[in-house]
């Protein structure tokens, strides 16, 4: 059974339909890149899965548990959030806490872990993203790339079954983008299940196991990266990829 | 200034300062502490948009900010006895000052809460914290930092405003000064003297406020 199976999700903001009956399946160990223009609904999809936005309709089976995306109760939502991680475009590190505290808070306050154990675990996670030496710094003292790596460590620390990435490198310059993508690549190699909204074609092509292309609130095309990039079937996919190529060149 | 005026000022100094230390300062600190509890609760109710309670909080703020502090003191101290409720002068003053500053403080803190980016709350939810945990560990500390200078100013205002309590027979600094002035007729000298002591208190608080701001700035240098 799929780890995450989203069915018939739809969402409107006022008059605008942002998601129209989207379905998406994620198997354990999948790294799925969601591509699409701004406004195609990809970020909203991620936010609805983690209940940062309330979908208008749809169901989701996550880790064997079925939830109504529109009507989910607080308890169900809390349960899902405890088993997932989320990485934001603009990092959203807790500004009043240092790097170490940013990672431990979800363990101590969120899960009742004792302080020492949480610290040990956090240092381990910070090591994985190469940030243990900055553990006493505050977010404002770090570069964007460093902040995003801490945000990834924060998401990892709670042992999520899946991590959602919402355009994790869009706020970064190319050099910093690479340091974050390298961390994500390593996670993928370690078998972490990831759902990544991104504009990084290189990442989608080389790292992901599946690519999903969205346009106008619909999943237009999906497939393995090789065939997706070599033989896109839909005209919208082709025009998107052509544009992405020309921007890069 | 005449010999008599100087002698009066010198003799009055410990008496006025004494009332300042035993009445004005405790009245201010007790009232301000209670006011902060009211302010945080009222601000959080509005921030969380809890239906009926938010309307009640808005009403409270509207009434308190729209009426003079002196009138509020009179209503509680002189008004309540006429319907059979007697309150002593000092508790009446504490009550009025806390409720009054609570309304202003609530607005300051609400503004500060709203200035914390929404992403902080979302990130808290995503690492599995409850709403109250997010408020306690993340939103309130950041808001407190933003609100600190304004709350400091409000505290300094309150020290001066406590002189109004003289009107309801609280024997604080200004009341004491009026008494001595009535006896000695050295009005100019004595009222200037009490003004200087208020100035002294305000200055000490301003210095503490500055030191506090510096400390908060060192912690993280956010923004």
- SSE string of chain A: EEEHEEHEHHHEHEHEEHH
**Tally the helices of chain A: what do you get?**
9
CATH superfamily of chain B: MetI-like
Give me the Rg of chain A, rounded: 18 Å
Strand coverage percent of chain B: under 5%
User: Largest inter-chain interface?
Assistant: A-B, 30 and 23 residues
Radius of gyration of chain B: 21 Å
CATH architecture of chain B: Orthogonal Bundle
Helical element count of chain B?
A: 8
Termini separation of chain A: 41 Å
End-to-end separation of chain B in angstroms reads 53 Å
What's the total count of β strands of chain B? 0
Q: Characterize the main sheet of chain A.
A: 6 strands, mixed
The count of DSSP E runs of length 2 or more, i.e. the number of strands of chain A, is 10
Broad structural category of chain A: alpha/beta
CATH topology of chain B: MetI-like fold
Low-confidence segments of chain B: none
Beta content of chain A: 15-25%
Q: What integer is the average pLDDT of chain B?
A: 94
Global outline of chain A: globular
